[in-house]
Amino acid sequence: MVGKVVSHYHITERLGGGAMGVVYRAEDILLRRPVALKFLPAELTGDEESNRRFMREARAVSALDHPNICTVHEIGETEDGELFIVMPFYRGRTLKTVLAEGPLDPASAVNYAQQVAAGIAHANEHGVVHRDIKPANIMVTDRDSVKIVDFGLALLQGGRRLTRTGAAVGTAAYMAPEQVLGAEVGPAADIWSLGVVLFEMLTGRLPFAGETEPAMLYSIVHGQPAPLSGDGRQVPTICESIVGACLVKDAGGRYGSSADLKRDLEEASRILTPQPGTRQGLQAARPGRLRRLALPALLAVVLALAAFTPTIRDAVLKSMGLAAEAPRGVAVLPFDVVGGGAQEQAFADGLTWLLTDRLSRLEEHDSSYWVVPAQLVRENHVVGSDDARLLLGVDYSVKGTLRFTGSKIALSLLAYDALRGEPRTREIDDDLANLETWQHQVSRVVAGMLGVDSPEDELLRPSGRGCTTVPESFAWLLRGLGWLNPSRGEPDHLRARDAFGAAVAQDSSFACAYTGLGRAVWLESGQTDSLAAVTAAGYLRRAVALDSTLVWPHVYLGEIQSRWWDNADAVGSLEHALALEPRHWRALDRLASVQYRRGDTV
User: Fold this and answer.
1) How confident is the model at residue 206 (pLDDT cuts 50, 70, 90)?
2) What is the number of H-type helices and E-type strands within the chain?
3) What is the dihedral of CA 412, 417, 420, 425, to 10 degrees?
4) Where are the beta strands (DSSP E) in 20-163?
């Protein structure tokens, strides 16, 4: 082939080849520029239907215009009927060749991954999925820029796997579980593949092992990835967070989009390649676009100072049309444990926090109710109904006592109306495995004890992936919440982080667990560490990607954004939270604080 003229291209050099074709360097005789010609294997385009599929995909790819995507100049056909693609010629090496020399430093790995994510995001936005992201399809130019090649060639396989009999397992190693199983493949598959590539750039090895292709494919579907750190290498935590969010088995549980992945990689890049004069590579709060918001500055100050005070808070909300006359306050007091240890008490404290959060939704159903935040109960050391009325100004209180017998849990509930002196009691006795009871029915029972008139069933039910179907994952979630919000003593952020990590390990699609993990990482760092900020934000975005209807990840993300990045972004996150729950106390408080610092005016 070298020395031949095909169309108006003079072939001068063979650059390489593989299962998907052979690439030559050529000279464009008409335009006098170097190009690359890729000739496709005859078996890929040997029938009319395959040719039509290829041409349709090629047209879509040729419309992509992005600096990190290798553009298609032309689709040609030789006199013998061979199809070829004409692309720009780039001086450089494939990432596969680069990695043959060993792993990259984290900054370089993240830089390359960021560029790949940018290209993928652009393609996905235009309805094009690569389906075969791997080092051999990533070109690193002499200028250290990245070009993704071979867009759309996977479609030529008609949905079949991208491996062939006798081919190296390298291609199989980058396939997402849904590809292995023959399911529909979408943008999430590109995110998985880039996660594998980033893992390999950081470590020089693959996350899923296997002596044979079938063994590797089995590991991809059923196994856990190898640890990133080890063999004397310590991978930055932010990289572990990003890779972990990419390598989630369930396609719907990965990053919501390649654009979200790109954003996290950009933040990681700022961390790993700090610039002089910056705070460890992260931008300090920079001037954001000022937007006029619904809450004036005066209201912001009032909310910031009085968000926890029932009388003032409801007076302010009433002026906004969000509160009814004579609101009835409800406080969930610490639950006790009979015959249990530290883990059982953490479970009980977590259930107290979760019940408080569920009941706070009653305010959307009936504005005559106001539920005291668990934080205020804990800070005021309120343990009885008299204290609740005196210190918190509420008439309704709820207490509970738990007894553990193996996996069986007995919960005794007491709801007390201080005005009427009327106690109401209920008993719940069930196995932890019956998650419907603990994730949903407890809050329904308490609502009924408080006399709430038939709240909508979904009001108190956690949404979507805010739930889990794995009992042990739910138990670890409650323990994590309990160690973050103990009824007695100080929070244990380290134990909380480990508990939420265990919950995620048990169920990688549990959005609430990722929310807790992000919060715990952030608090454990003392809220002053830039790397922890990015890591925590990554977990919170993961939670949002899994279930965007959860309020807390938006609130916590807004808090981190307001401290480290952009107040305008923080406002966006907090406003999103309030769109979900307009009376959410923490979102109101944080939004007021951000607005006050920004100096927003009427």
Assistant:
1) very high
2) 23, 15
3) -10
4) 21-28, 33-39, 74-77, 83-88, 92-94, 138-141, 146-148
Q: What angle do CA 158, 160, 166 make, to 5 degrees?
A: 125
CA-to-CA distance for 365 and 205, rounded, in angstroms? Answer: 54
**Burial (CB count <10 Å: 0-12, 13-18, 19+), residue 197:** buried
Here the tokens at position 34 are: 């170097």
- Give the model confidence (pLDDT) of 95-125 as tens digits: 999 999 999 999 999 999 999 999 999 988 8
The secondary structure of residue 47, as a DSSP letter, is S
Residue 364: φ, ψ to 5°: -75, -30
Reported pTM = 0.54
Mention every residue, 6+ apart, whose C-beta is less than 8 A from residue 505: none
The Cα–Cα gap between 291 and 300 comes to: 15
Q: If we measure between CA atoms, which residue out of 74, 51, 57, 36 comes closest to residue 153?
A: 57
- φ and ψ of 459, to 5 deg: -60, -40
Strand 336-338 versus strand 396-405 pairing type = parallel
The DSSP code sequence of 193-221 is HHHHHHHHHHHSS-SS--SSHHHHHHHHH
Please report where in the chains the tokens 């050391």 appear, as a residue: 381
Residues belonging to the active site: 132
Q: What is the pLDDT of residue 304?
A: 40
Give how far Cα 600 sits from Cα of 245, 294, 377, Å: 36, 10, 32
**Span 389-440, pLDDT tens digits:** 877 778 889 999 999 998 899 999 999 887 777 789 999 999 999 988 998 8
Question: Is residue 249 a contact partner of residue 221, using CB atoms and an 8 Å limit?
Answer: yes
- Give the whole-angstrom CA distance, residue 374 versus residue 357: 8
